[in-house]
Every structure is written in C-alpha cells, then in structure tokens.
Amino acid sequence: MALSEKELAFNSNEDHMKLKISALERELGKIYLGGGKKKIDKLHEAGKMTARERIDFLLDPGTERIEIGALAGYGMYEEHGGCPAGGVVIVIGYVSKRQCIVVANDATVKAGAWFPITGKKNLRAQEIAMENKLPIIYLVDSAGVFLPLQDEIFPDKEHFGRIFRNNAIMSSEGIVQISAVMGSCVAGGAYLPIMSDESLIVNKTGTIFLAGSYLVKAAIGEEIDNEFLGGATTQTELSGICDYKVENDETCLTTIQDLMSRIGKVETAGFDRIESSSPKSKAEDIYGIFPAERSKPYATRELLKTLVDDSILTEYKANYGKTIICAYARIDGWSVGIVANNREIVKNAKGEMQFGGVIYSDSADKAARFIMVCNQKQIPLVFLQDVTGFMVGSKSEQGGIIKDGAKMVNAVSNSVVPKFTIIIGNSYGAGNYAMCGKAYDPRLIVAWPTAEIAVMSGAAAAKTLLQIEVANLKARGEIISPEREKELLEKIKRNYDEQISPYYAASRLWIDAIIDPKETRKIISLGIDMASHEAELAPYKVGVIQT
C-alpha cells in the first residue's frame, strides 16, 4: 500500500533527525575518550580512575543525570592539540539520594590543565550551584593553568580567580562544597580544597601545594620532593589543610558518599508536582513531526503533546497572538508554563496572515502577560525556541512592535521562577532574547541537533555580507564577475553556517548541551528538581512597562 504524502514527509523528517542524532553520538563518543586510550591506560597503571569513571562510581546507580558542557572546546585549540570537553567533566546527578553537581578534572587532557574554556565551564558549574542552592563536589586532578594561554584565563573578572570568590560566596550562603584531591592540585588551585566545607586527599597520588618542588628550588633553593612538600601525610597530619586521608580513588569516593548521606533535608520551593504520566503521543514522533527543511511549517501543538504528561495542554489566550503558544501543562508530574513559538501559518481575528516563528505585537503581549501570571502562581517556565525574530515593516512599527517586544523582554528579564530553554530550531536575533536566550539566565539551556543560533539565517546573512564584500572590492577597483560573486557567496555562507551550528554554540558554552529530543522531558524534570533547592523566590517586580 502506497504511503500518503504526509506519511512520506514524516518518514523523511524522522530519517533526517536520526542522522543528526547519530552524528551527535559519534562526536560525543570521541569526546568521552578525553585525551585518548593511551592516556587512559597510563592513568589506570598509576592506580587512578578517569574523571568519567570517578563520576560513574560516585553517582547513585540507575539514577538520571545531565552532563553539562560535554561539547565545550569542540573544534577549539587545535594548535595546542585540542581540549575535549574543556578538560573537565561536569554532571548533575544524585549522590546518596541528594541531588548535586560534580566537577571532575580530566587528567588525560593536558594533565588536567586549565584552558580558557575550562575556567568558563567551571564557572558555569558554580553558577548552577549558586542559582539552585545545589551541593557541589570537586574531584581535583589538575596541573593548573595552561601557561601558553594564561592571559586568557588568569586576570579578568570571569577568569580563574572568580572560582575562589564563588567558593567564599557559596560557603556564606550555606551551599555544601566537598573537594577531593585525587591528583595534582597546584598554585592558585590549591585554594579550592581549603575553601570547601570539607576536603579529602588520596595517599600517594594526591598532592596539594602553591608551588611544586622545581619552582621551590628555583625560588628559594630548597630541595624537596613533591610528596613531602604537599602529599597526603603532610596535608592531613602537619598542615591540617585536608580533613580526610584516603588510600585510593574508590575509598575517596565512598567517603564522599558517606558525607553526602549525612546532609540534612532542605526546604524546597514547593513547585507543584503530582504523579508523572507519560505522553499519549510517542516520544519518537518528535522525529517525524519536526521538518527536515527548517522553512517548512509544522504542527507545533502536536510536537508539544509528545513532551507533556497525558499530552494535555491548557492553552492561555488560544485565539489571540497565535504565533506564540502559551499553555499550562505537566512534565514528569511538574506543573509548568510553556512558551513556544508556533511555526504554523495563522490568521488573526482581523483576517490577516501571520508567519509562523515570527513574534508579532499580539503574541509578544500575550507571552508577557502569561510569564507574569506564571510568576504570580510560582510555576516554572519552559521556553521552546523556533523563532526567526520580531515582525518588521511599517505596519508593525506603527503598531508598536518595539514597545510590545520590550514588554516581553521585561517580563522574561525580571522573572523569578526557574526558566528552562530548549532551542529546537531557529534562534535568530532579538527572538533569541525574548524567548529566554542565554543572556536571560535560564537555569538550563539546551539545543536539539536541529538548532541554529545567530543574528539571522545563513541565507539572509550571506546575502547581506556578500553585498558588503562586493562593494568593498569594487571600491578597490576590482571587477566582480558572476562566477566570482558566486564563489564569494559560497565561502561566506560556509563560514556563517559553521558559526550558526549548535556545535559552535555548545563549544563556547552558549548552551549547556546538545540533546536527543527524547531527552527533553528528563532535562526539564531534573532541572525543576534542582531549582526546588532554592526555598524562597525573590518577589516578582517588573518595573516600568509601557502599555
């Protein structure tokens, strides 16, 4: 029996998404090897686990987890041999049934040295811990700052030193911090364990000091080996820097589990949750609903039904501002407010056609109002981005699109309930901002492999950049043939397409992860569980909103 046009389109979309996911899994597989098998073998020979093995051992078996920044550093620092995962592994998971965030240096990547992206990634972990009052565990195994790039990691506000400032702030706010020195811990990094609540050090493999034996000899002429200088015995029995001396990695991690098990219960924010129900629509249907051609409209509500409990949406102002869908729903039992760009072509009450994925005055007004209502009700917000920007043109300008857009941005900016952003398709221009882009402090921000993040689409940007390039060349007296113009366009588009890729964003930590769309429910659920540690939300105040 012949397939219908709709079924053929569904199958084509499904194949396209599966190819994207397969490519993602291949790249992650390479990244998970860190510095490579030889480096891993060398670590094992020294009686040490890898960063990922340590995390696997530490976390409660069979529990859900989220890795943050696995693609950090992707395609960067190639002149220095690369920096897989930014040289540090960060996972949100459960230890002794307590949710926490674990930060583990990867000693197979340049001996755990800190690249600029390593610092940025560590700061992101601390930001998550601070925003959500989440316990943080540091598994330290690092040679310190990567000296060839020291100017990009050492002196600025958001560089290495900020980590120790955050240690102090978190301590003052009662956020649990546990450090385990499981390898090298040198120079400024030596402050991290002592600024944590409790610290452990592994005998014979862990060392902690401000300066190693070579530097000590060069500086003051003292000859001493690293073990006596800053080994476990010295730092637990003589200096008192570390609190627990343990014999190996396994004992160290087991001790951390014991320490975590003793933490008292914390007050929660009280976000509403009932028993979870699976969506009536199959999760795999996401693959077929989302179009391979990003310019094509699709049934956004059907896509949402694959994500929410029982596939039930309670829409807010369903017949007004139709290019944004605002709806109450539940995800894994949690009550959420969803703000999603509607990619269907719609008609407003005046009979005017509106393009899907574009924010018009009425949709901005509706979304702003819905965001404020969710804040009143203490309902976490989920933003699903597939947005090309705000509507332009004389009619929109005269209708006050800037004013209405500002209203939405204001509501998002001042929102105090947890926000979670999923970039599923386009994330262009000011649409990225209004739909809670990275600059608007979502607790987690992730992307599907189909995401594109940029000021404008590749095609539009390439044409604009081509005009500028051609004008510059003509001003220098060059004659531009159609062939030369085509060549220039292809080069410009190739470079721009690389920059709008979700991998480019993930490598720079503009997003926390690229995920399989089927993981969306899990990410949101774990994120709200995490945000629940913040017992009391600040009052919601929006300031001046022009109406």
Task: Walk me through the structure.
The mean pLDDT is 91. The protein is an alpha/beta fold and 547 residues long.
Instruction: State the CATH superfamily name of the largest domain.
Output: 2-enoyl-CoA Hydratase, Chain A, domain 1
How confident overall, as mean pLDDT? 91
Helix content: 40-55%
Whole-number total of structural domains: 3
Tell me the span between the first and last alpha carbons: 57 Å
Beta-strand share of residues: 15-25%
Number of DSSP strand runs:
20
CATH topology of the largest domain: 2-enoyl-CoA Hydratase, Chain A, domain 1
> Number of helix segments?
20
**Largest sheet report:** 8 strands, mixed
Q: What would you say the CATH architecture of the largest domain is?
A: Alpha-Beta Complex
| CATH C-level of the largest domain | Alpha Beta
Helix/strand class: alpha/beta
Backbone shape: globular
Contiguous runs where pLDDT drops below 50 for at least 5 residues = none
Rg (CA only): 26 Å
Question: What attributes does this structure have?
Answer:
single chain; 547 residues; alpha/beta; 2-enoyl-CoA Hydratase, Chain A, domain 1; 3 domains; eight-stranded mixed β-sheet; 40% helix; 18% strand
Write the layout of secondary structure elements.
Layout: H1 5-31, H2 37-45, H3 51-58, E1 66-68, E2 88-95, E3 98-105, H4 116-132, E4 136-142, H5 161-172, E5 177-186, H6 191-195, E6 198-202, E7 207-209, H7 213-220, H8 226-230, H9 232-238, E8 244-246, H10 249-261, H11 285-289, H12 300-305, E9 314-315, E10 324-331, E11 334-341, E12 346-347, E13 353-354, E14 358-359, H13 361-377, E15 381-387, E16 389-390, H14 394-398, H15 401-414, E17 419-428, H16 429-434, E18 444-447, E19 452-454, H17 458-475, H18 482-500, H19 502-507, E20 513-514, H20 520-531
Parallel strand pairs: 3-4, 4-5, 5-6, 5-7, 6-8, 11-15, 14-16, 15-17, 17-18, 17-19, 18-20
Antiparallel strand pairs: 1-2, 2-3, 9-10, 10-11, 12-13
Helix pairs in contact: 4-5, 13-15, 17-18
